[in-house]
């Protein structure tokens, strides 16, 4: 395995000197050396060929035992120590102290041109950060991570990627619905790939422990390797770093809102320092447009991480990062200015994004109202977000109101029960929109292209992931492969996949796993 090199982190920073996996506090180190479990009956189920190729693996290599060892655990190399990272985090708004990679093990990095990609196994056994967990992952949650990271990438959304999905050949006990019915499930390992897996929590923990020198080391390391464009020194350097993190976090939030993705657990330990979507747990996609929806059953009471709150939570999380970096900067004013800028930029970028979704290529004063009216109207009755925006591109400036409504009607979950008032409100909005399109008539083709590259046709709805899981648990991976393939081109018309361009079926409305999920994984 010549490609896999020691991770930059292990070459730059000293590890925790204790070498065992007993759950414990690690106050003064950024990571601990850990070896993955060697699963005797491991079996690779699926490889993302595109990622494999990007990493420089030939198709022949993917068949070798060496590759299997690498992506399932078992590749041990003293020059290349594997490790689990130490980080803390705010969980559901409360400081939770040390968390760390409880079941993720970094196995090294691969250099590609002048970039490097870290490889990380999720579910390959316990670490000092496993706390009360077992260090393993089950097939259902691993399928969800494997597929969704690829779906996000192809939607053009920054994300960690997934090289492979494998069965460990061992059973793992889980209480999937948190209802006291624990049962054995198949264990699995995903090999994740990203330039860095550092999270806000990696900076928060040394700061909370009052270890300024470790905080400075980690921050300097991050800037040197992942933000090489930052050339300034001292305070300025750290401020520029924070500004970049703030900007990439905002970009990510705009992307999630655009496609209707709800992360579900936006704790600060699940916030990537590179603005990537990371840690796919009880995430979900909006079916009917409901700003209050969260896919996470644990969050049902307060709905902290509901769809509409994500941009605000992104900002709240950045406040926590700012607090963590404060001792390096020692001046709150410029940090606050960056955080305030997030708010003004959000308004601007959200409007731009919505203009793209509606195909309003030439900005007009009335756009703000058209968008606000639509956002108010959408949640009043159940309207499918993906279908609605995709179909909207089929309207044009000469269509009559009735035909327009007919086109959009496929997105309504319960058209028959629309009240006269609701119907009128929709008719009114559609008329205003059609009149607005007259100002776009010179750009009709551009408008449709813009809308169809902003509004995906195919997304990984929860019920689809659940159907894939049901089959995979029986050893049938056909659907997994089909949907993986389909999600590679989410904006393109794929007539063969018409059946996946549809509203969530009724049976999936309130079915656990298909509507909402617990954090059990
Ligand atoms: P999450 O918010 O789901 O990303 O995870 C929160 C924390 O719990 C992280 O520190 C994870 O590493 C840890 N964790 C989750 N599941 C397990 C598990 N099965 N074994 C050990 N640690 C886990
Ligand atoms: Mg996590």
Low-confidence runs:
none
- Inertia-based shape: globular
Could you say which structural class the secondary elements and strand pairing correspond to?
alpha+beta
Number of helices: 17
**Strand elements, count:** 12
Bound small molecules, by name, code or SMILES, are: adenosine monophosphate, magnesium ion
Overall mean pLDDT: 96
The main β sheet shows up as: 6 strands, antiparallel
The percent range for helix content is 40-55%
Based on CA atoms alone, the radius of gyration comes out at 24 Å
Q: Approximately what portion of the residues adopt beta-strand conformation?
A: 5-15%
Number of domains: 3
What's the SSE pattern? Answer: HEEHHHEEEEEEHEEHHHEEHHHHHHHHH
Alpha-carbon distance between the two ends: 30 Å
Please describe what this structure looks like.
Strands 2, 6, 7, 8, 9 and 10 form a 6-stranded antiparallel sheet that branches. Strand 6 and strand 7 (115-122) form a beta hairpin. It is globular, with a radius of gyration of 24 Å. The protein is an alpha+beta fold and 521 residues long. Helix 6 packs antiparallel against helix 7 (212-226), helix 8 (234-259) runs parallel beside helix 10 (332-358) and helix 13 (401-408) crosses helix 14 (420-438). It is built from 17 helices and 12 strands. The longest helix has 27 residues, at 332-358. It folds into 3 domains: 8-196, no CATH class; 201-330, no CATH class; 361-383 and 394-454, no CATH class. It binds adenosine monophosphate (AMP) and magnesium ion (MG). Magnesium ion is lined by residues 269-270, 279.
